[in-house]
């Protein structure tokens, strides 16, 4: 008997038929002898319907009241699922954030979970009930309703799993696991049976469609094994845990990529960390996150700096730098949007040498130039011309991940 | 400066436009220097939408979970109204049942309010905020969500007004007050500027469309003056309080009527209270409420009993009595559905004699026979053939309530 948390997203509970299917799945897990806690999102479309009502009143509605409004979405889905499970002859109880004491900070719309009390949940499980909890929502210390923002229900599920020391937190979604790369780019992409938390964090740009990065971080922190599976055709899915797989012999677990990065260059600035610090402060003060940073020394006294930022911040970043160009004593400022980042990620890199060599060889054979390199213990990332992205992904996948027949 | 509770029903918040209009009305009251607490129903149609979702899953859904589901309706309307008021530059805060500590018993779907804590509300009012509370819902001692059933939001408003010792509880609805009788039957019906709680309870069959009887009882218990007004064209409406009006000189305040009563007769039963008690126990055990009871002595040893029951209970009551006819030693059992009850209600009856005489004179002049009579200190009710109902109402209204030009 295991203690299992099952999280179902909006499309998984998007209609009465889907809710009935989820009820069958939950009951099946219970009948296998497990204790089950379920965490739900709102029915798909419901959150947008509610936001639309709010926008009709105020284009920038009160964030406190928006959270009160949006949190009704999950309340509806948990009540309906509880009814469906009860109809199947099992005990079930729906629980709201205040009933399980999901304590968050008071950042309405993007609150962070501070604590989940296990007492009430343990009580329900001891009485053989299936507990069905509203995801995405919490209460601050004053009892105000809060919501957790994007990917919030994943975070709820992981925090709850951590609080009750669940054996596994299963994330049911509309894809059936984490893949070696995006199958739309590389038809030979394979589903991974297992990845580590460290790999999953690096694979976030792949996993973003599957798991919100914050929930992966939380799962790592609480040491709760995560499993990503499809609610439409549930099978083994992909397990994410601290243990390194001894089954897969791949050095590299996945090829991730990101089309949303842009390159910004500041030419001919005076050398010295204090000048770079000024530029970085300007970005930080304006909420612009930098992914990669590069420094090119031309002469003794002058350097070029290159940064990558998200496409959404590109124009803003260029404007800010241009306005301060004189203060920075920079020769010129320019940028590129038609770039993309491609990365190879794998725990095996730590112990296997020669990965970087194979990586650049693969790209060189396709005549793909690299503008930028960034590495970590388990990752190599490069920035390339966006038009070569698919080619680069396929080349790297073939080198590291395509199994020999 | 007064402390005012304003309650708005489903049609009053039935659309974004209506919510905007309510926001204007609330803000206007605030600007007049009053402290305002608002209690809302769900947007009209929303509760039915939610019930329909539940019924798709289970024709008899779990009552606990149905309450979790239905309570989202009010949560949506309070958040939207708070947004609309904040947009108008005033401070407002939406509050759920658990945030105001509306404690109820655990009768899901028809819970009774046991206590409302004034602390949180007083705190919001002291900080100059408009408090907007979800009506219709509460929490039991274990923190489960409960709902109050039919007319629940009126009850919420009155209980809250009682807890904070409000100067007035205003019930905004789609009619503009309490009338001397139904204007669809008697075009000369006038709106009453003032009635007493005692009269309002007797006028319930008129007031049922306006106020739920339980909320009138609660208002009387807490001694909170109630005012019924239209949210579509707000004016003075009708005030309901303990004070007797010294403005209106009418002995009778209103003519109430009810088409939903039926007559049941048990013929030729043995005399004696114990036999009647058996019949009454049969009704009570089966949840059938009796309105009027009459006893007709034919001979020394045999009596006929007549009862009136609600139309919904008529067939059930007849079946039950027929099944037990032998045990009751009754000669025959029959009934009539084409009957109606008409009543004259007024505090003035206590001190004015001759009301009964005028009452029966009016009916006699129209050749209307009376089957049944019941009286209280402030009411005379009779049961008549349903086909004479409108005629009886007009005749009585003319006698007691039509003002001389």
Automatic annotation (TrEMBL), chains A, B:
GO BP: any one term: lysine biosynthetic process via diaminopimelate
Residues noted as binding substrate in the record, renumbered to the chain: 47, 74
Record: residues binding ATP: 7-10, 173-174, 179, 184, 209-210
Recorded metabolic or biological pathway in which this protein acts: Amino-acid biosynthesis; L-lysine biosynthesis via DAP pathway; (S)-tetrahydrodipicolinate from L-aspartate: step 1/4; Amino-acid biosynthesis; L-threonine biosynthesis; L-threonine from L-aspartate: step 1/5; Amino-acid biosynthesis; L-methionine biosynthesis via de novo pathway; L-homoserine from L-aspartate: step 1/3
Domain ACT: 264-347
Keyword rRNA-binding: no
SUPFAM superfamilies on file: ACT-like, Carbamate kinase-like
Protease recorded as keyword: no
Keywords: Amino-acid biosynthesis, ATP-binding, Kinase, Lysine biosynthesis, Nucleotide-binding, Repeat, Transferase
InterPro entries reported in the protein's UniProt record: AceGlu_kinase-like_sf (IPR036393), ACT-like_dom_sf (IPR045865), ACT_Aspartokinase (IPR054352), ACT_dom (IPR002912), AKii-LysC-BS (IPR041740), Asp/Glu/Uridylate_kinase (IPR001048), Asp_kin_monofn (IPR005260), Asp_kinase (IPR001341)
UniProt catalytic activity: L-aspartate + ATP = 4-phospho-L-aspartate + ADP
GO MF annotations in UniProt: aspartate kinase activity; ATP binding
Record's GO cellular component terms: cytosol
Top-rank lineage group of the source organism: Bacteria
Enzyme Commission numbers on file: 2.7.2.4
Family: Belongs to the aspartokinase family.
Protein name stated in the entry: Aspartokinase
Organism: Pseudoalteromonas tetraodonis GFC
């Amino acid at each position: 008997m295991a203690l299992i948390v099952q999280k179902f997203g909006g499309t998984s509970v998007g209609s009465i038929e889907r809710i009935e299917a989820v009820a069958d799945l939950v009951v099946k897990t219970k009948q296998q002898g497990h204790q089950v806690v379920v965490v739900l999102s709102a029915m798909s479309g419901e959150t947008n319907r509610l936001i639309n009502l709010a926008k009709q009143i105020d284009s920038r509605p009160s964030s406190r009241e928006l959270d009160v409004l949006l949190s009704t979405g999950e309340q509806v889905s948990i009540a309906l699922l509880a009814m469906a499970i009860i109809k199947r002859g099992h005990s079930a109880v729906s629980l709201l954030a205040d009933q399980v004491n999901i304590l968050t900070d008071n950042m309405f719309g993007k609150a962070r979970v501070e604590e989940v009390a296990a007492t009430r949940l343990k009580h329900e499980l001891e009485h053989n009930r299936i507990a069905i909890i509203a995801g995405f929502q919490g209460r601050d210390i004053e009892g105000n309703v809060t919501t957790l923002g994007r990917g919030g229900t994943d975070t709820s599920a992981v925090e709850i799993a951590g609080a009750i020391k669940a054996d596994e937190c299963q994330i049911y979604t509309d894809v059936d696991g984490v893949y070696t790369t995006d199958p739309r780019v590389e038809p030979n992409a394979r589903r991974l049976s297992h990845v580590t938390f460290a790999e999953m964090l690096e694979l976030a740009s792949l996993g973003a469609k599957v798991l919100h990065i914050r929930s992966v971080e939380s799962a790592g922190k609480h040491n709760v094994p995560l499993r990503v599976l499809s609610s439409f055709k549930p099978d083994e899915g992909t397990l994410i845990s601290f243990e390194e797989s001894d089954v897969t012999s791949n050095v590299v677990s996945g090829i991730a990529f990101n089309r949303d990065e842009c390159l910004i260059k500041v030419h001919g600035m005076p050398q010295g960390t204090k000048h770079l610090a000024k530029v970085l402060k300007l970005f930080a003060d304006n909420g612009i996150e930098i992914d990669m940073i590069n420094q090119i020394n031309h002469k003794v006294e002058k350097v070029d700096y290159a940064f990558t930022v998200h496409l959404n911040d590109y124009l803003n970043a260029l404007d800010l730098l241009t306005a301060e160009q004189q203060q920075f004593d920079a020769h010129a400022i320019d940028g590129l949007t038609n770039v993309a980042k491609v990365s190879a990620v794998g725990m095996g890199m730590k112990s296997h040498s020669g990965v970087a060599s194979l990586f650049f060889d693969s790209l060189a054979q396709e005549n793909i130039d690299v503008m930028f390199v960034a590495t970590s213990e388990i990752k190599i990332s490069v920035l390339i011309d966006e038009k070569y992205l698919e080619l680069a992904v396929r080349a790297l996948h073939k080198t590291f991940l395509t199994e020999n027949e």
